[in-house]
Amino acid sequence: MGKGNSKSRASKPPPLLSKPWREINWSDKESTLQFVKNYKPHVEGQQIRILLHGPAGAGKSSFINSVQSVLRGRMYTQALEDNIGYDSFTKKYTTYKIQKEDQQSFYPFVFNDIMGLEPIKGVHVDDVKLALKGRVMDGYRFNPESKLSEDDQFYNNSPDDNDKVHVLVCVVPASTVSQMSDEMAKKIRDIRMEASALEIPQVAIVTKIDEVCPEIMDDLKNVYKVEYMKEKMEQFSAEVGIPMKSIFPVKNYHDEINLNSNMDSLILSAMKHIITTGEDHVNFKKNQSGCSGTCA
After folding, report:
1. Distance between CA atoms of residues 54 and 18, nearest Å
2. How many CA atoms, within 13 angstroms, populate the side-chain half-sphere of residue 96?
3. More exposed terminus of the chain, fewer Cβ within 10 Å: N or C?
4. Alpha-carbon gap, residue 237 to 185, rounded angstroms
5. How many beta carbons lie within 10 A of that of residue 65, not counting itself?
């Protein structure tokens, strides 16, 4: 009986950590917002291309809309979302630009949304690899059975630097990290290895964090105090190889009708890292090109 009571106590979730394992300044959202809004590439005419990939229903389109909402200061929907999530809602390769407040120009970073990964169907892994190289043109309809061919009208024969991907972002829901199939993990690793071969940096966004811990649902500020959340992120890191410093928990806007400061803070924290990572990649490739006389 004593052992039974001990096991019961051990199965309860641990209390919140006295100190967060990652620091975030919840009271200073404005400085990070201004960083993202004021970002300007060092190279004239350069834009940071951010490719989102991950399981169907993970929240890729929702993340794009959430970023747009934060930057516009109001709820905004451009990338169509699906609330059923049985299979991928996104069927075409689409580039999303975010218009600035003056409505005369766009931010110098763009998102690409693609069909979701699935264990059997879903986006063809080779299509994601082609997108990394800038070979896939807007409007291409994904076919799970076959990859984009070189003679297709949506195949880009001569991609320039702005067509190529500068940051690869894997979006996964926190609730399914521990249930991820071997096939899914293998696809994510396969895409990551191709990105690494192309020297493209990778970031991960862990979504739906409020669904795995009541402490986070009660208060988003607990996200870095919940040991269970850290374990989920460490598990995903070990599974696919993306380092912890490049994994960010986020709650996308879903049923809210007004902006929330804490949600904004997590979204902006991820975006700042994505932008600086992309900037570093662009500068590295330009320096490399200047030394060798050729572009990779």
Report:
1. 33
2. 24
3. N
4. 11
5. 23
Question: Distance between CA 244 and CA 158 in Å, rounded?
Answer: 35
52 pLDDT higher than 90: yes
Segment 90-130, tens digit of pLDDT: 688 999 999 998 878 999 999 999 988 988 788 999 999 99
| DSSP collapsed to 3 states, 190-216 | HHHHHHHHCCCCEEEEEECHHHCCHHH
Kindly tell me the burial class for residue 257, based on how many C-beta atoms sit within 10 Å of its own C-beta (0-12, 13-18, 19 or more): exposed
Which helix (H) or strand (E) segment holds residue 108: the answer is strand 106-113
- Per-residue pLDDT tens over the stretch 179-224: 889 999 999 999 999 999 999 999 999 999 999 989 999 999 999 9
The dihedrals phi and psi of 177, each to the nearest 5 degrees, come to -55, -45
Token output for 244: 């912890």
Comparing 47 with 178, which gets the higher pLDDT?
47
So what's the pLDDT on residue 91? 80
Indicate the length of the chain as a whole number: 296
Distance CA 223, CA 268 (A): 15
Q: In which element (H, E) is residue 49 found?
A: strand 48-53
For tokens 């049985």, the residue is: 86
| Mean pLDDT over the full length of the chain | 88
Measured distance CA(200)–CA(167) in Å, rounded: 6
Contacts of 115 (CB under 8 A, 6+ apart): 56, 88, 90, 91, 122, 123, 142, 144
For tokens 């082609």, what's the residue?
A: 130
